[in-house]
Amino acid sequence: MEMPVRVSRDFAKTYPYASASATECAMNLARTGDLVLGRVALALQPLGVTPAGGLVLGILKDAGRPCPPNYISERLIVSRATVTGVLDTLVKRGLVHREPHPTDRRMVLVHLTKSGARMADAVRNTVHSSEAEWMRPLSERERAQLTELLGKIQKNLVP
Amino acid sequence: MEMPVRVSRDFAKTYPYASASATECAMNLARTGDLVLGRVALALQPLGVTPAGGLVLGILKDAGRPCPPNYISERLIVSRATVTGVLDTLVKRGLVHREPHPTDRRMVLVHLTKSGARMADAVRNTVHSSEAEWMRPLSERERAQLTELLGKIQKNLVP
DNA sequence: CGAAAGTGGTTAGGGGCCAGACTATCTGGT
DNA sequence: ACCAGATAGTCTGGCCCCTAACCACTTTCG
């Protein structure tokens, strides 16, 4: 497969209303993002934790105190239903446990266990050292450029 | 949320072995890729087809003839088991049907139905016109830069 | 020829993600 | 005090994705 992915030679003729450069950006963005996510999953596999689980542990660790699932869902930019599922698997692995909120009985507080806290550190270390590896072919200048370009797209996409 | 996503001020102190620029690239890559995929799903929703299903229809359309699932799985860079599932939902929607291979009895050939072929076109049109929208904030020069940078990362990630 | 190795598709089981529905609980305004 | 609306967490049912195991069929090779 070509890298980066390119549109076919007659793209402009087949899709006159489209933009070849935009399509190439979108395809390569999706592809590279997917590759990176796959690599994260691979790097975390030996730790016995999934990317989603690792992110949740990091959020709890950063907060420095037990948090309700709703807080996690906002940070992760993911639905509350999804957080319920991720927490279930973290509980199964003994990295986290749920306790009722002392005053608001609608809520639950998610606590990091000892091994959950250790795992949060291990995840950060693993992921951050992998990232340096992945981005090696880019100079500092190119990395700054890439981040800027991605930021522009995000601003346009998020509103 | 900041865009692009930035690492905290004391990142270098907390993770001395890591690279802040690499981490920012990775975070924004994952985030932007995810945003784009979400937008694709959103754009396709009115058509009643999912991104994975849309890609399969496109592969069949491009091939111009019935294809075995294995071929689709290689093109999609996805496991055969996943293709089985995606085909099941396409069959349910009447966009595709399976026929036994005439000579090799291990295989199946996936045929586009009439409405599947129409859907393949609709998907392409919808996605390509959305892409132009998403990339609007980038000049032609910036788009070329972005594609090049992503290509470098891919080359480093794939082997 | 006939067994071993390879290939193609599916199934089973584990996650992750979502929308929508449901329950329990809080809060605000009358 | 009370009820309507907001909020928190969960469950259901879909879809996507993976690995491993399985079965049927082909190919290869002694």
In short:
The structure is a homodimer of 159-residue chains. The first copy, chain A, is mostly helical and 159 residues long.
Describe the structure.
The structure is a homodimer of 159-residue chains. The first copy, chain A, is mainly alpha-helical. In chain A, 64% of the residues lie in helices and 6% in strands. Chain A has helices at 11-14, 20-44, 51-63, 69-76, 80-92, 114-134, 140-157; strands spanning 96-100, 108-112. In chain A, strands 1-2 form a two-stranded antiparallel sheet. The longest helix of chain A is centred in the N-terminal third of the chain and has 25 residues, at 20-44. The radius of gyration of chain A is 20 Å and the shape is elongated. Chain A starts with 10 loop residues before the first helix and ends with a helix. The mean pLDDT of chain A is 95. Chains A and B meet through helix 2, helix 6 and helix 7 of A and helix 2, helix 6 and helix 7 of B. Chain A binds a DNA duplex (30 and 30 nucleotides) through residues 41, 50-53, 68-70, 78-86, 89, 101, 104-108.
